[in-house]
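User: quick one, sequence for these tokens?
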């Protein structure tokens, strides 16, 4: 595939992804860049590992910023986890420490597996809900729900630029 086709495919994936799938993409990007840095460090090429390591750190810092706004129990635990990963990545960058980089990558892999399972479960639940609903059934709205509140959140406009890139 040519780079333009890859970019178009990625943009379409992002536009149609749920928030959990977007989060999973961020984790996968952080892993990809951290593993690029790991390969460079293993080859004793610290300079080649610096840029991908910084990109991984940027992604993790965005994930951390995304959960710090809420003080519920799950977000507090996620913030602690992402802070741990960010600290390990920073220590790897500052000290050229392959061991700290490996610790961060290991936790990112575990986090990716967890988010994959969550996305698969959500997709299965969505599929089950779609097949059990009648085609002409109108959902009953209760409480403060409105059709606009039930609409999916629009994906960010990548063509406008800005934001993080998870591309290699």
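Assistant:
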């Amino acid at each position: 595939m040519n780079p333009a086709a890859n970019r178009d495919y990625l943009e379409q994936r992002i536009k149609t992804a749920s928030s959990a799938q977007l989060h999973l993409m961020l984790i996968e990007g952080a892993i990809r860049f951290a593993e690029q840095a790991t390969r460079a460090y293993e080859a004793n090429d610290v300079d080649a590992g610096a840029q991908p390591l910084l990109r991984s750190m940027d992604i993790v810092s965005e994930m951390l910023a995304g959960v710090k706004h809420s003080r519920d129990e799950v977000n507090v635990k996620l913030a602690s986890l992402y802070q741990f990963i960010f600290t390990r990545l920073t220590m790897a960058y500052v000290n050229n420490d392959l061991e700290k980089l490996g610790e961060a990558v290991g936790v990112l892999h575990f986090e990716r597996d967890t988010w994959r399972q969550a996305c698969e479960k959500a997709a299965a639940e969505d599929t089950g809900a779609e097949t059990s609903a009648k085609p002409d059934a109108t959902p009953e709205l209760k409480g403060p729900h409105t059709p606009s509140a039930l609409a999916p959140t629009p994906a960010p406009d990548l063509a406008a630029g800005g934001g993080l890139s998870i591309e290699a």
